[in-house]
Fold:
Amino acid sequence: QLVESGGGLVQPGGSLRLSCVASGDTIGRYCMGWFRQIPDKEREGVAGIESDGRPSYADSVKGRFTISRDNAKNTLYLQMNSLKPEDTAVYYCMRALVDWGQGTQVTVS
Structure:
């Protein structure tokens, strides 16, 4: 099970940090990631982190978002800085493209 938190309403230029607490296997064993979705659009990948720690980012968030994880807490994070209105979406945590969280709303306005 994956449970996200940290979403909310923020002004453009602001910051938020999303958290995803995982139950079960340690997240360090898997590729983990964050996706986002807006109504009537496909879910898109935002950031991922491999089991060896290598991060990857969508071009639209490079330099603004940072993905990280704390294996001891079994928690995945997404630090989002310099937020833009186009970042508004429901953000989902993912484990190995198999498990998904329920999503957390981020609104930049």
Q: What stands out?
A: The chain has a mean pLDDT of 96. The radius of gyration is 13 Å. The longest strand covers residues 16-22. The chain has no helices and eleven strands.
